[in-house]
Write a structure and sequence with these properties.
With 359 residues, this protein is α+β, with helices and mostly antiparallel strands. The chain folds into 3 domains: 111 residues, Efflux pump adaptor protein, beta barrel domain (Elongation Factor Tu (Ef-tu), domain 3), CATH 2.40.30; 61 residues, RNA polymerase II/Efflux pump adaptor protein, barrel-sandwich hybrid domain (OB fold (Dihydrolipoamide Acetyltransferase, E2P), Beta Barrel), CATH 2.40.50.100; 116 residues. 43% of the residues lie in helices and 24% in strands. β9 and β10 form a beta hairpin. The longest helix has 57 residues. Keywords: Coiled coil. Pfam families: Beta-barrel_AAEA, BSH_RND. This is Multidrug resistance efflux pump.
Amino acid sequence: MTDTTRPALTPEQRFRRSVYTATAAGALLLLYAVVADQFMPITPEARVLYDTTRVAPEVSGTVVRVHITNDQRVKAGQVLFEIDPTRYQIAVDAAELALDQAKQTIQQRDADIAEARAAIVSAKATAEEAVRQATRKWELSKRNAVSLSVAETAAAERDAALAAVEVAKARLRASLVQRGEDGPDNLYLREARNKLALARRDLAQTRVVAAEDGVIANMRLRPGDYVAPGTPVLAVVGLNPIIAADFREKALTRVGVGDEALVSFDALPGRVFAGRVASIDAGVAQGQVNADGTLAQTVETDRWIRRAQRVRVNVSLDAPPRLVSGARATVQLVPNGSVIARALAQAQIRLFALVRYVY
């Protein structure tokens, strides 16, 4: 009967086996990391971003009413706060009076035009009579019925009457120019209406409203505060987040818009949310060159292995949770959508999600 018991391994053999096992495991892990980075890339460098609108009044004045509080949800068009409208209402009243004055000015110009036209008719009648008298007296002077001086006086009166007609026509042209065009296109009316519209707009801007649905943030406004035009006084954080994830550029060779994405959040450990790649940024800040007339500046580094360039990928979620803007996230992409890749990707992201319970 033979003894089939294997001889015990020597310490040197056990050490060699451990080294081989660790080397094989490391090689497999490295191979998996390389393959996974190409077919199911993942990155913990991601944040939740919301569109944020900085609210600034377009007119200056003292705040008289504040209708919202910090962290309050508002809808587009909802009044946020009101500025004292007194001087803007006075400006509207003044603009309305100016419009009425412009209308009266137009009426006065119309009366002047009518008077100028009547003066032309009268001057023409006088000129026609002077022409007839001058012609008649000139004929009489030829027959010595009247003296030559009488005929010359009649001719001078004729010339004066004709000149009066031209003067009347010039006054009519001047009146027409002063009045301008007929109807609503008249210059005086347009100017007055523009000033009234601007005054009414300024009055309406004393009620500052939300431009979109969102949540009020960084609000410290109180009644009695003075606000200046163009100076932000609060922010409205939007309700639709976008996940901005930075991936190594070599990991995006198979990624396209519409690919499946899985996201876990540090604030919600253990949970995974489904989404899609919404867009991939066309460039990064380091790739922007300004034509400022200076020479190119080379990149210098003492690192043996340079850091991988990262590219921004924007992910939209199917059912996004409500998180603060800037919350950290981990994004897992599934470019090719295969069953095996999706299963491994889900395992990876769930492992990261579980780790977030601890870190």
